[in-house]
């Protein structure tokens, strides 16, 4: 058990090296991950459908390839969890909605194709809000995902299952996606790394509106190096995504060295437009005080982002109308409250609304560039509140101020989405409530390598300071199931890889 615990806690980069050097076998690593999932997942409900038998066959094949001296991919033999919004051939993909409770795709999305081609071994799907709507990972198919630091609190979303699985060392590679913060927010709340890449860097073959940059797929990891390794395996041109482009994939495989003392940092608590809890502001100020001596300059940055909230409302709604039109026409009651509200809000908008929002986003983008004439990166909090009980659908109030809708509390991340700049949430100690605190690092336009390099340098510096280093959940407190996480499920959630009911088995 101790050997397994040590193995699954190792960085994916180190695990990949060990596999290539024949120090461990892919089968040994897979078995350790399955053991961790079976031991811990009932307490947090991060992992949903699994394909353990198929994964074991793939691990044996990966072991044979190592023994035969065959060329090995960047992720060869590494167990993989895929967010349940991405189609996986032969493995149940529900999107967290009862409408797709038995959906078993016949082919992978491009993201999964590339991960498998790089040698990753698909093991499981990870939990999401219904259709990815919102930053609280809960749905009527699988139930809620609890925060590894306190399962009664939310893990963020929509990549909450992936973030919680990584934080608990269940799997070394997990995917995510991000519209308004769905990579960054759960990473912040669970104490891991979530990177929103520039649109098109990682192709998304499931995006219906192929020309809009608002939604991206991207990597998560326990460290920046893990995150970069997954990015390197998935980046580059694909005819499935009209925004994708050619890149040197291997140039992302390891963050470049960077001297923090040369860095010009701008920081903001709220981008001049976001509600942020006073306690989170205080935590952020303490982090900035610790960071300032590490860098060349550290100055508060001012922003004028126009009508950024309405702009996001309209552009986000366009995607939901495109995706939900048929389901809504069939039966509006099939949709959960978040997804139905998204469709109905968007359906009321006019062509004039859409044209205004596209023009306003362009204005926001151009205004945002002025900050990077003075700074190399912009720092902010990733989320405006500490994790709250998952039973609360969203943060309805911040500092006593009512939020207009269920996603307004995500403004710190979605304003950055509109700029199309790369952004990463980096673990940075604990907040006032003893929960993980995420530092949002916003890089220059198309500056993905720079953003990763800065994050890696900060990560190394933070690791030497107990108050700043990445927090780890106490897994000894996660040895018992958390029954309340299944309390919102209204139909049997326990399904195998083909979508058949498995009454009496353990849902993982």
Automatic annotation (TrEMBL):
Q: Which InterPro entries match?
A: Amidase (IPR000120), Amidase_dom (IPR023631), AS_sf (IPR036928)
Q: Which residues form a coiled coil?
A: none
Q: Does the keyword Nucleotide-binding apply?
A: no
Q: What does the UniProt keyword field contain?
A: Transferase
UniProt biased composition (Polar residues): 495-508
Which superkingdom does the taxonomy of this entry point to?
Bacteria
Region annotation (Disordered) maps to: 489-508
Domain Amidase, which positions?
28-452
Write out the GO MF terms.
transferase activity
Please give the name of this protein. Asp-tRNAAsn/Glu-tRNAGln amidotransferase A subunit
């Amino acid at each position: 058990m101790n050997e397994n615990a040590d193995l699954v806690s190792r960085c994916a980069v180190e695990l990949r090296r060990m596999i290539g050097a024949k120090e461990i076998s892919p089968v040994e690593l897979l078995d350790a991950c399955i053991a961790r999932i079976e031991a811990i997942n009932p307490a947090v409900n991060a992992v949903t459908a699994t394909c353990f038998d198929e994964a074991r066959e793939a691990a044996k094949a990966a072991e044979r390839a190592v023994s035969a001296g065959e060329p090995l991919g960047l992720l060869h033999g590494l167990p993989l969890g895929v967010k349940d919004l991405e189609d996986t051939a032969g493995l149940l993909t529900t999107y967290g909605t009862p409408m797709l409770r038995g959906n078993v795709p016949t082919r992978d999305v491009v993201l999964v194709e590339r991960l498998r081609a790089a040698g990753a071994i698909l093991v499981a799907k990870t939990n999401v809000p219904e259709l990815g709507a919102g930053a609280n990972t809960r749905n009527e198919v699988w139930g809620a995902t609890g925060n590894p630091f306190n399962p009664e609190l939310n893990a963020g979303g929509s990549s909450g299952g992936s973030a919680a699985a990584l934080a608990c060392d269940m799997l070394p590679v997990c995917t995510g996606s991000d519209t308004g913060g769905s990579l960054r927010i759960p990473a912040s709340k669970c104490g891991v790394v979530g990177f929103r890449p520039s649109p098109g860097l990682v192709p998304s073959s499931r995006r219906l509106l192929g020309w809009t940059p608002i939604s991206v797929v991207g990597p998560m990891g326990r460290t920046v190096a893990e995150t970069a390794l997954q990015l390197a395996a998935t980046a580059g041109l694909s005819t499935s995504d009209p925004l994708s482009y050619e890149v040197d994939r291997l140039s992302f495989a390891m963050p470049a060295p960077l001297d923090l003392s040369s860095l010009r940092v701008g920081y903001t608590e709220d981008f001049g437009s976001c509600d942020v809890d006073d306690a989170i502001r205080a935590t952020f100020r303490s982090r900035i005080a610790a960071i300032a001596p590490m860098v060349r300059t550290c100055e508060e940055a001012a922003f004028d982002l126009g009508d950024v909230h309405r702009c996001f409302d309209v552009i986000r709604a366009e995607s939901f109308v495109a995706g939900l039109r048929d389901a809504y026409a069939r039966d509006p009651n099939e949709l959960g409250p978040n997804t139905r509200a998204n469709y109905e809000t968007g359906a009321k908008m006019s062509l004039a609304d859409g044209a205004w929002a596209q023009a306003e986003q362009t204005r926001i983008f151009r205004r945002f560039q002025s900050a990077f004439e003075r700074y190399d990166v912009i720092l902010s909090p990733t989320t405006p509140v500490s994790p709250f009980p998952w039973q609360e659908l969203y943060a309805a109030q911040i500092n006593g101020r009512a939020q207009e809708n269920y996603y307004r509390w995500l403004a710190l991340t979605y304003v950055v989405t509109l700029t199309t700049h790369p952004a990463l949430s980096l673990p940075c100690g604990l907040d006032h409530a003893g929960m993980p605190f995420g530092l949002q690092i916003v890089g220059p336009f198309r500056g993905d390598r720079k953003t990763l390099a800065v994050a890696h340098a900060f990560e190394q510096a933070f690791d030497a300071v107990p108050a700043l280093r990445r927090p780890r959940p106490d897994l000894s407190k996660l040895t018992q199931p958390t029954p309340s996480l299944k309390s919102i499920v209204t139909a049997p959630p326990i399904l195998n890889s083909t979508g058949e009911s498995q009454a009496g088995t353990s849902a993982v």
